[in-house]
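Pipeline run #58 for the internal structure catalog. This entry was flagged by the ingest filter as a single-chain record with no existing model, so it goes straight to prediction. Upstream metadata was stripped on purpose; only the residue string is passed forward. Reviewer on rotation: M.T. Logging verbosity set to normal.
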Amino acid sequence: MHAFGREPVAVTQAPGRVNLIGEHTDYNDGYVMPTPIPLMCSVAVGLGGREHEVVAAALGERWPCGVEAVVAGDAANAGVRAGSWASYVFGVMHEVQAVLAARGAGALPAVQLAIASDVPIGSGLSSSAALEVAVARALLEEEVWGGAAPALDPLEVAQLCQRAEHRFAGVPCGIMDQLASAAGVPGVASVIDCRTLQTRHVPLPDHRIARFLVIDSGVRHANASGEYAARRRSCEAAARELGVNELRDADAYMLEHARAALPPEVYRCALHVVNENPRVLMAAEAMRGGDMERLGGLMNLSHASLRDLYRVSCPEVDRLVEALQSTEGVKGARMTGAGFGGCVVALVPAGHENAALQAAARIIGLQVSALWLGSQ
């Protein structure tokens, strides 16, 4: 732990994730199908100071914070701006403190955190959730609390990280990213019911048959968080008009019946969600049954819906998706993540890997940043 001149008492990690299908459905109580990726956020935690101190290695930034500010959740007094990387860390520190104090563990001692991550920021691979979960795991280590801290299960960790993002980062996210990072299993997709939080595991395709290719478009759009919140408000407006708690409870017939009463943007967002939820369940069945044609077709439909109805894609990502979809052998491709840039995921049968990479290189240049995901 060179940043603080001492050895850490513990080092923790949490992965990013790629969502294979089911975008913008989690905050509508719907279904999603993410899988963890082999890119990690790592946190080394040390003890011994009088205040909390955090170093973000990749950003070259150091942030001190008083213990009392974390206990009170007083981000302003700690100099933390909503949406900054520090707001994610501060929020998790406060939520861990609050949960464990409620269970009789006392106050979080002053900690020093050194953070390093190879999950690209703004890539749609959930660098923020990886950061949150890795920090939470570090703060929950027995060495921090002298062995006295109650253990939290992965769902509890995910939920406290989600609360932190809502309250302190100002992002009204669903539970998918945090739960995929906290409880995801490599080589396995998690079909998550975001209402009940029940999860079914579906193995990824055998790597000898097909793999998922994840490619970073390199595009980062600064307005993504505001647009994300706007889409969520549209979904909430549609649910109110339809008389349901969440769009999970709506169907295409209900939506069409109410179409005249809905603003066009609200209708389009609702139609995406209503159609995307069953696509997730059908995609899980197709992957479990080895039906790559059907799985790829559902991915293509998902992207078209995100592009045309939810309107969270962008021209650069669309060109990359189209290039992959038109490559011989590739079964399907779609944007992944909240949108407005970031990564694309494609389903590529064995033997067609080079063709897929060459198609991507023609769009984004020779330096293609790619991950391959499949089961052994």
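catalog note: The CA atoms of residues 95 and 160 lie 6 Å apart.
catalog note: DSSP finds twelve helices and twelve strands in the chain.
status: ready for reviewer M.T.
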